Amino acid sequence: MSFIAQLKAAWQKNNSLLCVGLDPDPAKFPAHLRGKPDAIFQFCAGIADATADLACAFKPQIAYFAARRAEDQLEALIAHIHDKHPNVPVILDAKRGDIGSTAEQYAIEAFERYRADAVTVNPYMGRDSVEPWLAYKDKGVILLCRTSNPGGSDLQFQKVGPGGTAIYELVAEMVAKDWNPDGKYAGQLGLVVGATFPGEIARVREIVGELPLLVPGIGAQGGDIEATVKAGKTAAGTGLMINSSRAILYAGKDEDYAAAARQVALETRDAINRWR
Amino acid sequence: MSFIAQLKAAWQKNNSLLCVGLDPDPAKFPAHLRGKPDAIFQFCAGIADATADLACAFKPQIAYFAARRAEDQLEALIAHIHDKHPNVPVILDAKRGDIGSTAEQYAIEAFERYRADAVTVNPYMGRDSVEPWLAYKDKGVILLCRTSNPGGSDLQFQKVGPGGTAIYELVAEMVAKDWNPDGKYAGQLGLVVGATFPGEIARVREIVGELPLLVPGIGAQGGDIEATVKAGKTAAGTGLMINSSRAILYAGKDEDYAAAARQVALETRDAINRWR
């Protein structure tokens, strides 16, 4: 099944636009997991099992695994999610970006080695840096557009051309049109737009039609749920993967961490649904 | 020793501006290495040993290792270079880019796990995505500026502001000035500028003063050595890390591949030196 079909099915089945971000930081793990050789896998699998009926996607952040030589635990985690929760697609948050044969190697890493359903990619190197990813017809490629951090404006908010188009708008246009001739890759493409800029979410939605938007920045980063949903939802009341990581992962500090995570995920899903 | 001090010492000791790119593709390995469990390490270590007195840097591309679950071989390779060739710094070509705590994890991956001396980073997410890397005072952070691929122009050649500054020029200005207040990080920063655009190498050199430039695109990608060196060298005749990967790595197809690689590296180094 293609990424977009998986995503649509998960939006409907779980009545959810919530993406659960998996950024495992062992220093924040409950005591009963600390020191275990597969603590990262155990922690994340516990979160996934507790929230799989509340999420439209899981988003493991590869840096948290790579910093600790835990690639094998990332492989095991994604395999676990595919096995136990086949209805919830996995977005590998890797923000890769390179050209030609190197981009092909990164695509092998994300899609063949880790078996992710989608990946985040940086657009700075342009169209031919994205094409090797799009060769995988069933996979999603979610390009950075407007990021939620303060420095995001350094480049993304620069204005180009006579109309003063911002770079983030240009990226949205390129991804929706130039890099997607005749809608050829429409079911494969998505964009990252931070929740800290609802006005810009609305602008991106205007440019890209139904393209799914991955929206980080609610929860710990302070983005507003009402404003995000109103700005980003499609006519069908979907089109969004609203990510929360830390607020869910570290809701509890003890053996009941997964139950605490479930409670926050439930509240977040429902808070999102209030504005759909 | 800091990255810039290592680089300056290697420029001088080896009389070389050549960076040897390590992009190991097992399908192109000589027959005697194929099927060996540590073939990637063996192949790359052979290249490093054969070219260490001819290079100012080695640049392993992490995707080639990650696609094959060969992180352990990348660790072993960098440890081997540090041990046997301590005068030649290692640039981990990873083109990472993320924010806050995630960027910190990537920095741990590159600098603590792999012990790279420098890393390539994508500037799209702006200043605060770069700062966690700069916290490592002895390490180099080489930002993508003008890449050598056709799609590089999609964003990098967009013109902003009344003067029509191209995005790649803006990145050069930000890295040299805004992101480097009072020259605080001068010895840590560098830029990637492709050899396929000599006019733009010259423009970047004009903007950034003595900042080192990593220049991919000679050899297999067709960039011109004379034009690259003339456009990019500093007054001291240095300032460049001119990368060649495939033309060196796959110069020979048999057991003598390392000797063949040495010959091409020698010719390339000398061809570069002709124009310094």
- Low-confidence parts of chain A lasting 5 or more residues at pLDDT below 50? none
- Please identify, by name, the CATH architecture of chain A: Alpha-Beta Barrel
- The name of the CATH topology of chain A is TIM Barrel
Count of DSSP-assigned helices of chain A: 12
Q: Secondary-structure element sequence of chain A?
A: HEHEHHEHEHEHEEHEHEHEHH
User: Quick one: overall form of chain A?
Assistant: globular
Structural class of chain A: alpha/beta
In terms of DSSP E residues, the strand content of chain A is 15-25%
Features:
homodimer; 12 helices; TIM Barrel; 276 residues; globular; two-stranded antiparallel ribbon; alpha/beta; 8-stranded parallel beta sheet; 44% helix
Describe the structure.
- Two copies of one chain form a homodimer.
- Chain A is built from twelve helices and ten strands.
- In chain A, helix 6 (127-134) links the parallel strand 4 and strand 5 (140-146).
- In chain A, strands 2-1-10-9-8-5-4-3 form an eight-stranded parallel beta sheet. The first copy, chain A, has a two-stranded antiparallel ribbon with strand order 6-7.
- The first copy, chain A, is globular and about 60 Å long.
- Chain A has a single domain (3-273), classed as Aldolase class I (TIM Barrel, Alpha-Beta Barrel).
- The longest helix of chain A has 17 residues, at 257-273.
- The first copy, chain A, has helices at 3-13, 39-51, 62-66, 71-84, 100-113, 127-134, 153-156, 167-178, 198-208, 225-232, 246-249, 257-273, and strands spanning 18-22, 57-60, 91-96, 118-121, 140-146, 159-160, 165-166, 189-193, 213-215, 240-244.
- At the A-B interface, helix 3, helix 5, helix 6, helix 7 and strand 6 of A face helix 3, helix 5, helix 6, helix 7 and strand 6 of B.
